[in-house]
């Protein structure tokens, strides 16, 4: 090959690299945008009406509330967490399955796309909330509290994306454990959005109770136990399955009551009591943790048997 041909080939390669990088960046951005939208779809198909507000300036019917891209209400805090974090997890899962060559570039572009949608939804819904709430210090505290919750949820969505998109099996498994409960809440919102609050099938609450354990069990089976250091991931994910539902229950109980609304010491005390009860032996976490453990061990056993059969045939 002549020097001229070598120079031409190098020039062609250098031209392809920017194009390939631009294409990967565009796909990453698209993944983030679509995943963020997917996370918000259950709320959108439910009608996307801003929930009734205790501090609304005027008396209105539910159907007269404005359309909001996020459900701004203290009663919908856990729904917001589920909608936003599931979007991040979906983007991470897409990158994990795709496994692009420029993984870091795609991941950061996906984060940008995710933030574009989620920040836009946050701004739009808070603008509506600010226009409709009554004036006063209490309303300002209310908006600030909701804003803090949304910001934390968006940050959690980014963390979920990074963990699940990672090349590391350990990181992805941890991300799956963290997302088991929010994903279940998101799935329930899908059902509610499709059939309505009054037509939810009786089996849905029971399925929602066990679904996080199934998700965690499948993640543990995929992770495996070798090297033995991965047993720490098993302990961590089972702890997530024990603690996260209890935290969700405590938060929902505190924010869902009007009796002590605004009384911070009483709200903290109530939250502590509910959390302690939910973490206790009567809280219902033991059966779900045992189910996840059993599924994980069964999955590992199946993988070992399958590997031995493949080895014996070869």
TrEMBL record:
Tagged with keyword Nucleus: no
Keywords: Membrane, Transmembrane, Transmembrane helix
TM helices/strands, residue ranges: 21-45, 77-98, 105-126, 146-165, 177-195, 207-225, 232-255, 285-306
Signal peptide: none
Protein name: Integral membrane protein
Protein's organism: Paenarthrobacter aurescens (strain TC1)
Lineage: Bacteria, Bacillati, Actinomycetota, Actinomycetes, Micrococcales
């Amino acid at each position: 090959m002549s020097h001229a041909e070598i120079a031409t080939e190098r020039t062609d390669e250098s031209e392809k690299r920017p194009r390939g990088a631009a294409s990967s960046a565009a796909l990453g951005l698209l993944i983030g945008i679509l995943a963020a939208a997917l996370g918000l779809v259950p709320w959108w198909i439910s009608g996307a009406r801003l929930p009734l507000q205790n501090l609304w300036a005027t008396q209105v019917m539910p159907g007269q509330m404005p359309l909001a891209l996020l459900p701004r209400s203290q009663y919908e805090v856990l729904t917001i967490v589920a909608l936003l974090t599931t979007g991040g997890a979906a983007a991470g899962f897409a990158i994990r399955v795709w496994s692009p060559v420029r993984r870091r570039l795609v991941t950061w572009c996906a984060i940008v796309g995710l933030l574009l949608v989620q920040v836009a939804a946050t701004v739009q819904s808070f603008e509506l909330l600010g226009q409709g709430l009554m004036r006063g210090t209490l309303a300002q505290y209310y908006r600030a509290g909701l804003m803090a919750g949304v910001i934390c949820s968006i940050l959690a969505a980014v963390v979920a994306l990074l963990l699940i998109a990672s090349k590391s099996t350990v990181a992805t498994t941890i991300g799956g454990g963290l997302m088991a409960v929010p994903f279940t809440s998101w799935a329930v919102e899908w059902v509610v959005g499709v059939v309505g609050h009054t037509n939810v099938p009786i089996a849905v609450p029971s399925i929602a109770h066990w679904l996080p354990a199934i998700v965690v069990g499948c993640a543990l089976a995929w992770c495996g136990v070798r090297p033995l250091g991965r047993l720490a991931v098993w302990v961590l994910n089972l702890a997530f399955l024990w603690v996260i539902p209890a935290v969700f229950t405590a938060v929902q109980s505190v924010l869902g009551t009007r009796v002590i609304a605004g009384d911070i010491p009483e709200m903290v005390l109530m939250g502590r009591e509910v959390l302690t009860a939910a973490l206790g032996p009567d809280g219902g976490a033991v059966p779900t943790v045992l189910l996840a453990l059993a599924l994980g061990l069964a999955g590992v056993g199946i993988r070992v048997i399958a590997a031995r059969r493949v080895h014996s045939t070869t």
